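Slide 14.
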Amino acid sequence: MSREAQKTWGGRFSEAPSKIAQEFNASWTFDRRLALADIQGSLAHAAMLAKQGVLTADEEVQIRRGLLTVQQEILEDTFPWREELEDVHMNIEARLIELIGPVGGKLHTARSRNDQVTTDLRLWVRAELTRLLEELKVLRKVLVQEAEKYLEPPLILPGYTHLQRAMPVLLSHWFLAYYEMISRDAGRLQDALNRLNESPLGAAALAGTGFPIDRHATAQALGFARPMRNSMDAVGSRDFVLEVLAALTIGQITLSRLAEEIILYTTFEFGFATLPDAFSTGSSIMPQKKNADHAELIRGKVGRVLGSFVALATLTKGLPLTYNKDLQEDKEPLFDAVNTYRASVTLLAAMLPGLRWNPQAMFRAAESGFSLATELADYLAERGLPFREAHHVVGRIVRHCVENGKELRDLSLSELQGFHPLFGQDALPLTRLETAIHRRRSYGGTAPEAVREALKVAKLEVEG
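Slide 15: predicted structure.
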């Protein structure tokens, strides 16, 4: 703690701290991001102290004016940050005292840096999650718009299991699959936001305070649902940050999966889509290359966001109650994870509409590779043959096609009946993609009418 900090926060120390220790201890270079939240909390605290008679009305006015001046300096980037002052809180209070004199020191009555910092952090996280949810809504709208764009006429894409062609699906169905996943990611962030919206302010160092404060008033003034019920929990817990980091990690994993499919589908090997030039890069020596670097970065950044979660989980796993200096390390991983996730969400929302899909390549891939074999098995099962036996029959048909260089659509009725007499003329259309895709009409299925209904629901959700 610097000499200036000692003057502000206590007089016990008889010698100046080591320069090395002072630099190691400082957090203002990153926690200055909490400055506006710190001022917001201080304004509410000062107003409450005045209402409770701890400050006079004149003192509260002076403090308010001083804090608003500090706020303006921060917004205009003219605030005189001082390296020797340890953190954002001490910088702001020292500046307040410079502006209005000793009365500025009364602001810290009935609170500690312990409840101050976690109040600031909750305010900051609440604001960031609110923004993120809006940005996720933009991405969800893009997914809905792209699904609608390719529904009439329907573009057909091969669906995969084990990265082997499995069954055909609509491209719109694929877009809506990611819509559902990202909607759940938004739900997790909303849940975290709801749970963290409690006020620690007034818990003081760890045990509350003897001053006649009104914690419900400050909670209400700051938009919190309620004050936290236990002062030790209020200052010593960071599970709300862990929950946010967990939700961000899951969200980044979802974006990574989407990015991976973009990477695959835009290769020459797949050829289902072409990347927009604005979201591609070239090679330093290979002029033919068009690389999906941005999608690869989204995929790679999962490690970064997960690393933030692991860092904080490791940091907090053995901490005793209540506040420990270790908790200073909660902010940089959180800040970085929020930045990373936001950048990925924003990039995808801009990139997806620029993808140019290749209907012919998608159709050929969806129709080949015996992706309609299940249709024939279902046909036999619908006519009374046990599905396991139907499965075996169609397996022999596929083997026959492989050995003879045929696709299912090349088979005649007599060939099908050679494998089982239940096959009739109406089985032949099932080897055609245009017919087969319409059979998957079950709720949540890929038939155009089922996808159309899912799209209606999704549109109502993102437009509400």
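Speaker note: Strands lie at 156-161, 164-170, 198-199, 226-227, 273-274, 356-357.
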